[in-house]
């Protein structure tokens, strides 16, 4: 049996550090807004190379509050990729704005400049790019284009913490970077969590108010905010895990390279990396013309797989109103062909070889 992900294996490896972190918080009995989240914000800012990090309750809130802090809301349009996790698009609606969907490139699975140009309208105020599956978007041309057109650039780096683009951390290049610490992400909490990286202290101040009931003083509320604070237990656990992140990501890259070698000679294709980028393989996602049959075959042989994403956002019922009649051919095609294979730092080389061997066997039998 090969699972898609094994969180218990990671806990076993770090049990002493994690248990000590949790106990530290229990003893302090400071559960919200204390030393752990302050330290985590500083450590993450150092790690990412930004002036400010604001921790929040989830990656979704990181996106919603980012849009609000940038003044994007009712009447505004925000370009988002259609081929992404639903939260990217939903965040735009939750902020009161309208998502406009861009198609993706068939090789990188990410948006490129031509897709953004097509999606841009009169009311476009911002672009959210997604570093999908940990593969950095080609940011330079997009950043230049956003600057030329006066658009905010938000990086949804929920799947890409630790990935680099042209020697910068993803999430530190655009105006704002949003991260998620959902347990399955490359840096996962033991519950929900998220963070926002920014380079403008005024925006950081606004974000700190927004996540805490719009508070300016103890009982003075400047704006209508929400309750989106990262709790101290999650912050302490994330601090214990952060020093291991680069090693885990390096391991993911080695496993991905092994998949790529092992899949040579099959009809599988996989996400291509930008030359300026160091990806972190949150998922290793192949394309296969007989995706459903391959998935069934692997399931029979005890290999867990998943389809990210079977419905592109522009075809989601919840967003039907905002997208109208768009058709995005690459996103639609990808949703029929993609299959995520198991990848996580504790996965063995033997397991990867076993999976790639089964893919060859599947193709021989057809
Ligand atoms: C996980 C994820 C989010 C949302 O993060 P949560 O912490 O689950 O709210 C947003 N965008 C992408 C691309 C994600 O993968």
UniProtKB/TrEMBL annotation:
GO terms for biological process: polysaccharide biosynthetic process. PANTHER family: 3-OXO-GLUCOSE-6-PHOSPHATE:GLUTAMATE AMINOTRANSFERASE, TRANSAMINASE. This is DegT/DnrJ/EryC1/StrS family aminotransferase. It comes from the Bacteria. The active site is at residue 185. The modification N6-(pyridoxal phosphate)lysine is found at residue 185. Belongs to the DegT/DnrJ/EryC1 family. Keywords: Aminotransferase, Pyridoxal phosphate, Transferase. It holds the Pfam family DegT_DnrJ_EryC1. One of its GO terms (molecular function) is pyridoxal phosphate binding. It comes from Dyella tabacisoli. InterPro entries: DegT/StrS_aminotransferase (IPR000653), PyrdxlP-dep_Trfase (IPR015424), PyrdxlP-dep_Trfase_major (IPR015421), PyrdxlP-dep_Trfase_small (IPR015422).
């Amino acid at each position: 049996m090969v699972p898609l992900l094994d969180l218990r294996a990671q806990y076993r490896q770090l049990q002493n550090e994690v248990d000590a972190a949790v106990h530290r918080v229990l003893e302090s009995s400071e559960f919200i807004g204390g030393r752990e989240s302050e330290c985590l914000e500083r450590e993450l800012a150092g790690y990412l190379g930004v002036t400010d990090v604001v921790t929040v309750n989830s990656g979704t809130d990181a996106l919603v509050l980012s849009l609000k802090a940038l003044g994007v809301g009712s009447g505004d349009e925000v370009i988002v990729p259609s081929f992404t996790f639903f939260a990217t698009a939903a965040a735009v609606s939750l902020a009161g704005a309208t998502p406009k969907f861009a198609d993706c490139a068939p090789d990188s699975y990410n948006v490129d400049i031509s897709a953004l140009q097509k999606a841009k309208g009169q009311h476009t105020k911002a672009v959210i790019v997604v570093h999908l599956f940990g593969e950095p978007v080609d940011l330079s041309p997009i950043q230049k284009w956003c600057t030329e057109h006066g658009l905010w650039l938000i990086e949804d780096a929920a799947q890409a913490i630790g990935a680099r683009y042209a020697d910068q951390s993803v999430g530190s290049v655009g105006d704002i970077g949003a991260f998620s610490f959902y347990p399955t992400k490359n840096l996962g909490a033991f519950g929900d969590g998220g963070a926002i990286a920014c380079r403008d202290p005024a925006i950081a101040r606004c974000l700190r108010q927004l996540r805490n009931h719009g508070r300016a003083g103890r009982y003075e509320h400047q704006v209508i905010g929400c309750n989106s604070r990262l709790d101290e237990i999650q912050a302490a656990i994330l601090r214990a895990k952060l020093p291991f992140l680069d090693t885990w990501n390096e391991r993911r890259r080695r496993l991905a390279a092994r998949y790529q070698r092992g899949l040579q000679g099959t009809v599988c294709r996989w996400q291509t990396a930008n030359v300026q980028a160091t990806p972190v393989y949150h998922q290793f996602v192949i394309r296969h013309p007989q995706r459903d049959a391959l998935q069934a075959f692997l399931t029979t042989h005890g290999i867990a797989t998943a389809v990210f994403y079977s419905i592109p956002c522009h075809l989601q019922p919840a967003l039907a109103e905002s997208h109208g009649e768009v058709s995005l051919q690459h996103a639609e095609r990808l949703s029929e062909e993609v299959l995520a294979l198991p990848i996580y730092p504790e996965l063995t080389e033997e397991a990867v070889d076993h999976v790639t061997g089964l893919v060859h066997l599947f193709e021989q039998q057809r």
